[in-house]
Amino acid sequence: MKNKYSLVCCSMAISLLLLGCGGEDDSPPQKIVTDTDQPKSTALADFKNISPSDVEVFVTKKLLLPLNEIEFQGEIYFVKIQSSFKQIVFLGQLPHNQAFELSVNIELGAFPLTVEVFSENENDKAIVWEETYE
Fold first, then answer.
1. Which residue in 9, 12, 71, 118 is deepest, having the highest Cβ count within 10 Å?
2. pTM for the complete prediction?
3. What's the pLDDT score for residue 89?
4. What is the rounded CA–CA span in Å between residue 87 and residue 110?
5. Residue 70: Cβ-neighbour burial (10 angstroms; 0-12, 13-18, 19+)
6. How many CA atoms within 13 Å lie on the side-chain side of 19?
7. DSSP assignment, residue 93?
8. Could you read off the pLDDT of 56-78 as tens digits, one per residue?
9. Beta-bridge partners for 116
10. Each residue's pLDDT tens digit, 5-38
11. What residues make up the domain containing 99?
12. What is the CATH number of the domain that holds 95?
């Protein structure tokens, strides 16, 4: 049993010694090439190599809501704007005695937007229209 244990230990030691032996090379060690011109910051504005992109993902859409032209029996006007993904982009109460311009930041794929104007009165029929990206 001792002979087997000695044999296993010796063979492992010889294997480790052989693994550690490597041929010497006269060439200088290779350096890792790094670009020293790049800043150490992670801010995109600090990187000079990033080219500007022409891809628009998000746009600002100005919506004109002519609430002063809508006649409801109710006194409180609500506006709901929904994307083509059925996500509500805006839901709120707006003054009904004037035209209102609302800017919405949204991704291009979310068009057309569905705009719905309604009041608190259940007898008023909601007014709905679509806004497209032009």
1. 118
2. 0.56
3. 92
4. 9
5. middle
6. 6
7. E
8. 688 899 999 888 888 899 888 99
9. 80, 128
10. 777 666 777 766 666 655 555 666 666 655 555 5
11. 58-131
12. 2.60.40
DSSP string, 65-88: E-GGG---SSS-EEEEEE-TTS-E
Number of domains in the chain: 1
Least confident of 13-17, 21-25, 42-46, 99-103: 21-25
For residue 14, report the phi and psi dihedrals to the nearest 5 degrees: -65, -40
Show the tokens assigned to 72. Answer: 């409801």
**C-alpha span between 11 and 4 (Å, rounded):** 11
Rg (CA), the chain: 35
Q: Residue 24: inside a domain, yes or no?
A: no
User: E strands of the chain, at which residues?
Assistant: 58-65, 77-82, 88-94, 100-107, 113-119, 127-131
Q: Structure tokens of 22?
A: 């490597």
